[in-house]
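Suppose a colleague, Dr. K., hands you the sequence of a protein chain of 180 amino acids and asks what its three-dimensional shape might be. Before reaching for any lab equipment, you can write down a predicted structure in token form. Begin with the sequence itself:
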Amino acid sequence: MEQLNLGIGTRLQHTHYGPGVIVGIRYATYLISFINHGVKEIDKNDQQLDEIIPENVTEEIETHSDIERSLLKILRLWGGQTEIVPLGDKWRGGTMILHSGDKSIKPKEVPIEVFFHKIVMARDRLRVLEQQINGHKMLSDEDKINLQQYITRIYGSFTTFNVLFRNKEQWFVGEKGAGE
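The predicted structure, expressed as tokens, is then:
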């Protein structure tokens, strides 16, 4: 059998180890994760190794760009999921009251948990935006740095709300804290 030149993620069948998937590639060998035997290093010329060609290959997994599109679709679908961030105990069950300067307008009461959740969602969406900027292929490094500076300033504007967070590692950090 000729030497197999396959990529990571290729499904294989080995007569001794059974089905597996390539998880690493070296010059003359594959690192293959077998279902019942763990990861084994197998020579590319091994006569007991055959590629499994799936019958129903979907377009989603045929190219790297398609994989990237599928991953982005998943990230967008689950992008609304937020990290569970504990509210400072002193604020539990509290209410935020907004009084207008116009005394004829009734004050607005917002449960502190609702307000806190919106702050956390804004922070999480800033993080996603930051990741998208960093991974953007069309932006120059200078453009990325300029956009990053705006995001850092937004974080700085949110530092007022750090009083709501129980854990300091979940605080917003602006320009002054970014360089520390």
